[in-house]
Design goal:
alpha/beta, N-utilizing Substance Protein B Homolog, Chain A, Alpha-Beta Plaits, 4 domains, 11 strands, binds S-adenosylmethionine, NusB_RsmB_TIM44, RNA-binding, 16S rRNA (cytosine(967)-C(5))-methyltransferase, RsmB-like_ferredoxin
């Protein structure tokens, strides 16, 4: 990526968006990389973050508005001009504090600086029309799927699936929540401290928090950068969404158990399992990607945990590697479409498609089968995803239980929608292997 050191905030945002739109970069990674590499002030960083996330979140609506202002199809517009128009239209339509004139002039200036000076008149004309016309009247769209898709900026195929699965009201609430800002949530490491003490320690470092909505181990950051705190460096907490905490809680662990985390990287749930076991017993953290296993090791080291071992293997082969009935607990936090975390990672909604979901559900079932084989009788198997998509959730669990109805019983199945607790959307299914505990 081009060095961003001398770029203006808008030029920075344009480069990041260009990578996300045309090179399939992940917005959060591209943003972190660019901001670390730039000499922008904190205020400018916040502006860049807002423009990047906002433009991606509202993409559908922005493209629709831009399409209305042009004679030729918007999709045929030059790549850079497309990005400039999208991010400038976002500022015009959704950022109240940016004066209209500034959004237009800066868009034109960006075209000049980014090698598209010949199109500055075009950019100017389109943005003036957008400013004059504003947002469309969504009420005039009679089809509910089309209306939700356009008004809340989600792909139509996804809205159709969510309406079918959960109904119009739940779908709309979910889509609206996906447009909000995501919180940063912390999980207290109870092996080192307790929630009140951590809250006070963070406050002394200028970081304000409030108690979470779902988990007694969670704090929500309301002000400040917890990442750079001394409490983080010494392992007093980890970053984790509250829904993820519930997954580990559903595994119902205790000290001394032998636990397999089949898809473990970057280790958020692994480390919580070890903490809940008082770091006594064994937690085997498996992931298919070696580079991701290193992330688990970093967290384990930071938290000072000794009960975790990492391993790199395709989880669909676990039944070949281990004897049957080896582990007391098995967690399958499966690779999934991630459609429950769209609020924090908005590009997911544009990058995912129905074909990928089909492939994922086949993989999920294969992993679940292999993982179930290595679980001891009486043990708990938890299957979870950070998505809300029946094909990857209920249908995977139902297919598994249909085949194993004599050997597995369903204990608890829960979908958490992002709008319920302001957390990530998650699916959690806890099952028990029949037979006596050994
Ligand atoms: C949802 S993430 C796990 C998140 C993790 N449990 C946590 O809480 O930090 C799914 C993980 O599955 C891994 N994965 C994908 N395919 C896999 C496979 N066939 N076998 C094992 N791991 C796999 C991915 O590398 C990814 O890290």
């Amino acid at each position: 990526m081009a060095k961003t050191t001398n770029h203006t905030p808008r030029m920075n945002a344009a480069h990041i968006l260009d990578r996300v739109f045309f090179e399939e970069a992940y917005s959060h990674l591209a943003l972190n990389e660019a901001l670390q590499d730039s000499s922008l002030s904190e205020v400018d960083n916040r502006f860049v973050t807002e423009v990047v996330y906002g433009t991606i979140k509202r993409l559908n609506t922005l493209d629709y508005v831009l399409e209305q202002t042009m004679k030729q199809p918007f999709r045929k517009t030059d790549r850079r001009v497309k990005t400039i128009l999208r991010m400038s239209a976002y500022q015009l339509l959704y950022m109240d504090r940016i004066p209209e004139r500034a959004a237009i002039n800066e868009g034109v200036e960006l075209a000049k600086r980014w090698g598209r000076g010949g199109l500055k008149g075009f950019v100017n004309g389109v943005l003036r029309t957008v400013a004059r016309q504003g947002l469309p009247d969504f009420k005039r769209i009679s089809d509910p799927v089309q209306r939700i898709a356009l008004e809340t900026s989600h792909p139509e195929w996804l809205v159709r699936k969510w309406v079918q699965a959960y109904g119009e009201d739940v779908c709309r609430a979910m889509c609206e929540t996906n447009l909000k800002r995501a919180y940063t949530t912390l999980r207290v490491n109870r092996l080192q401290t307790d929630r009140d003490t951590l809250q006070r320690d963070l406050q002394a470092e200028g970081i304000e928090t409030s108690a979470g909505n779902l988990s007694p181990d969670s704090l929500i950051v309301t002000e400040g950068q917890a990442m750079h705190s001394a409490s983080f460096a010494k392992g007093a907490f980890s970053f984790q969404d509250e829904s993820s905490m519930l997954v580990t809680q559903a595994l119902d662990v205790e000290a001394g158990l032998n636990v397999l985390d089949a898809c473990a990287a970057p280790g958020g749930k692994t480390t919580y399992i070890a903490e809940r076991m008082y770091d006594e017993g064994q937690v085997l953290a498996n992931d298919i990607h070696p580079h991701k296993s290193m992330l688990i090791e970093q967290q384990v080291q930071r938290l000072g945990l000794e009960s975790v071992t990492t391993r790199t293997e395709d989880a669909t082969d676990l039944d070949d590697t281990f004897e049957a009935e080896t582990f007391d607990r098995v967690l399958v936090d499966a690779p999934c479409s991630g459609l429950g975390v769209v609020r924090a990672k908005p590009d997911i909604k544009w990058q995912m498609n129905p074909e990928q979901i089909k492939e994922l559900s086949a993989l999920q079932l294969r992993i679940l089968e292999a993982a179930a084989y290595v679980l001891k009788p009486g043990g708990t198997l938890v299957y979870s995803t950070c998505t809300l998509m029946p094909e990857e959730n209920e249908e995977v669990v139902d297919a598994f239980l249909q085949k194993h109805y004599t050997s597995f019983a369903k204990d608890e199945v829960r979908s958490i929608f992002p709008q319920q607790y302001d957390s990530d959307g998650f699916f959690i299914a806890a099952m028990t292997k029949r037979g006596d505990k050994r």
